[in-house]
Each structure stands twice: as C-alpha cells, then as structure tokens.
Amino acid sequence: MDGQFDYVIVGAGSSGSVLAARLAAAGRRVLVLEAGGSDRRFYVQMPLGYGKLFYDPAVNWAYRTEPDPGLNGQRDYWPRGKVVGGSSSINAMVWIRGDESDYDDWQAASGADHWGRDAARAAYRAIEDNADGADTWRGQGGPLHIRSGRDPAHPLVTPFLQACAAAGLPRNADFNGARQEGAGIYQLTIKGGRRNSAARAFLRPAMKSGRIALRTRAHVTRVLLEGRRAVGVEYRWKGALHQARAAEVILAGGAINTPQILMLSGIGPGGALSAHGIEVVLDQPNVGRHLNDHQGINYTWRMRVPTMNDILRPWWGKAWVGARYLLTGGGPLSVSINHGGGFFRTDPSLARPNMQLYFQAFSTLMPRDGERPILSPDPFPGLSIGLSNCRPTSRGWIDLASADPFAAPRITANAFSTDQDVAEMLAAVKFLRRIAAQDPLAPLIAEELRPGPEIRSDTDLIDDFRQRSGTVFHPSCTVRMGRDAATSVIDADLRVRGIDGLRVCDASAFPTLIGGNTNAPAMLMGWIGAERLLATR
Hints:
Layout: E1 5-10, H1 14-25, E2 30-34, H2 42-45, H3 50-53, E3 63-64, E4 77-78, H4 100-110, H5 117-127, E5 128-130, E6 144-146, H6 157-166, E7 182-184, E8 190-191, E9 194-195, H7 198-207, E10 212-216, E11 219-226, E12 229-237, E13 240-251, H8 254-264, E14 267-268, H9 270-275, E15 282-283, E16 295-303, H10 308-312, H11 315-328, E17 340-344, E18 355-360, E19 382-389, E20 397-399, E21 410-412, H12 419-436, E22 445-450, H13 458-468, E23 470-471, E24 502-504, H14 519-536
Parallel strand pairs: 1-2, 1-13, 2-10, 5-6, 13-24, 14-15
Antiparallel strand pairs: 3-4, 7-17, 8-9, 11-12, 12-13, 16-19, 16-22, 16-23, 17-18, 18-19, 20-21
Helix pairs in contact: 1-7, 1-14, 4-5, 5-14, 12-13
C-alpha cells in the first residue's frame, strides 16, 4: 500500500468516517485503518443492541480508569468503540449539537471563525437529514438521517415531560434549535429501525467511489517520522507489521487512542516518554492532558405501572420484541435507551444550562469494578432519570502504561476533583427528586430505590454520587486545538505544531467540552476538518 494514498486516516469512528467520505468526494485517495472489526453485526445495527455491546470486547476497547478518589477510590469503566463506526456504532444514538455558545468558546480558543457558531450551524444543516424537516436550525437532505424528536418512545415520556414543566423546566421541541434549555424528546441517529452510525451514513456510501480503502483489525503502533515530518504509519495486521505511507497522516482514534499513538511515536511529555524508553521527537507536555468528560448518575424508582423492564426481562417478552423487530423493524428494540431528557441550570444566574437529563423507562443496576459485567433489566417495573454535568471543571489525563502499543493506556479521570463540580452535582440530584415529586409522574411511582429515601443530607447525597457516578462516555480535549501553543497541541487547521504532515481530527481535538452528547460534534470535527485539510494542504 506504500505510496498509493493522499491521506492515511487512523480510525474509522465518528470523525474519521466523515473525514474520509469528504476527502474522497473531493477526489482524494484515502486509506482508513481501523483497529476493530466490521460493524456489520446484528447488535450493532439494532438500536437497543446497545446493551449487548456495552461490555463486548469484540467491538469495545472496554477501558478501566485508575482508582479515582472522586469516585470513592473506584475504577470507572469506559467503553469506547473498537469497530468500524467507532463509538457511533455502540453509543445510545442521541443527536445533540451542544449549546450554540459552545462554538463561541471554540472560536475564541482556536482563534478561527470556521469553528464558530455560524460555521457550526451551517455544517450541521449540511450534515443532517432531519425527519422533522428543515428550518433555520435543522437540515434536511444531508447524508445523516436523524430520527424525529416528535414521537414518544414510551407512554411514560409524557408524564415525565409534564412533571418537568411542573418543576419549572418547560417543554423544548428541539434541543438543537433556538435554545437548548428545557425538556423534550431526543433526536436520534436511527434510520429505518437501524442504527445510523457514521460508518453507515458516511463511510460505507463513500467507499463506492473506489477512492477509499478500509483495512480493519489494523492496529496502528506508531506514526512514521522522518525528522519532524510524518510520512506514514506502522500497523499490525494479520500478525505482522506493515507500513502505509501518504502525503499526510490524520489521527482520528479518539480522546484515548490518539494521544496514546502520539506518545508511542515520541510526541508528548518528554520525561514520561523517556521513562518508558521512547525516544523523544517532540517534547509536547499537552499531549494527553486537559482530559474533560461528563460525569453522570441515575436515580431509580419502582413504578406502579409497567415499564420496559416488564417486556425486556422475561423470556417471552424478549421473544416477542425480537420477533416484532425482525418482522417489522419496529418496537422497543428499534429505539434508544434514552427516550427523552433535557437541559437545565442549577443556578438561574447561569448564562446557559449546566446539566443534562436522561429519561429511561427502564432500569438496571450498573455493575461496579469486579462485578459480573452485564446489563439486564431489573426484576420489577423500574424507571430511571439520569443526569450529567455539561461543563465540568475537573480535568484528568492520559498516560502510557508502557511502551507496548497493545497495552491499554493509563486513564486518570480525576472526577469531582473541584468544589464547583461537587456543588453543581449536589444541586442537580436534588432537582431529580423535585421532578419525581410532581404530578402526573408522582402518583405512578411506588418508591425510590436508588439511592433510597434514607439518603437525605448533603453529606450522604455527595457520598452517594461519588459511589454511583461514572462517565457518560464523552472524553475529549486530550490533544486539544488552540491559538495558545503553550496550552494546546494543534492549531485551528488541526496541524500538530512542530510536526509536518500530521493532523488530529477527532474529539481529542476539541478545545473545550461541548455541553451535551459528543457524537454530533465529533462528526462536525470530521466535516469541517476535511474543509481545512483541503484548504491548507
């Protein structure tokens, strides 16, 4: 494959799939190397197959963090997509752009208009094929079909939204529209009852052009450098080491794997690399730093009315919903685990929402470290309302555990390490109970199960969310973009400063964490990133 390609893209995830498709449309020849296997799996394509993928090492890196004082010393579980489509092939499919002000932050951090709110809105409208039609905000006719946010997935969604309104959080028909705050039904990356991943929407159609070569189970071990110029990558495939060379190398492995590859290539904190016996090519202390992620928790209630537990737990229910899905493409298996949600402020003086809600007409006890890793509905009618912080101030980092490219990196999440994050989460969990106490939801609730009514004091509430919180799977910013070379790794055109021919295009490049789910902004990164590659090469 040496010399055949204009670009080598490392990672066929949300950003990499979009990037490859757009480069191919511009007539470029692209090699995409993906460490995982094919996304053509039943549980990848079935939307509620999410539960089957959560711990499956066949499609999932299944990382564990270092013991975290902020989580009472526990090791958190971090699933990340190791499959064509990346995490868009194993996620919960919620399509959230983020608050428009998030892109003001990106513009300020990068110093470039092409990452600002106007550019982001235009790009999203070009990306989207929204089932609710086009307007000033939504797009229609783009490559990514977005399932309508108008129809409830479960009867309990309506009383949940009414309870939110009674608690002071009014209905919002479109979180990606004029405002983010409010409660409503999520738009989802689902098309025709099947998951609409970045691979399905972008990469697979683009491969028909003949300008993209996709090699799966190709684990990149390092970037090939000649001096301070990237000339290709080394990767293991079918038990042997291979090389692929191109005019430019783009890392799109995500917030964990991209900094790992950079450090294995000698680009990162010099002292740490030397300690692992890695020759330092570029001492760049920001590689792997500034890790930012949303932390979340669920509150769970036993219900007086049926929930999805009643149909998804018994064998006959599984048989019924399975047959319905196979025959019609519909039913409970054709939707996300998140039926609705919203965004709210824990302090009315805040300029924008700082918390996100997730409504699930379903409940499951999440296993902790050392427990059997399964997701199974609770044996009673259960309902969960979860939340996550939108803009945490805690920062973690990624380090190499060793110079072995097949060893998992060391992830230090550093959750709830600031007083601000603790105070915001405390106020947020109190708001969950306020929602649950409102009509018409309250009469449907039999009892609170997690954490339980005995957990009342601030001290006990804080201890509970330290014990039960965890990632909501949005790690970002570990190779971040910025105008300030002292605090960032790449410039506004995604070029790694100090290394020619090397760029980063994925969630690791986010200058700041978006207030919401990160799959949409990861695809945005690929979309705008392609424009910057074509404009600046």
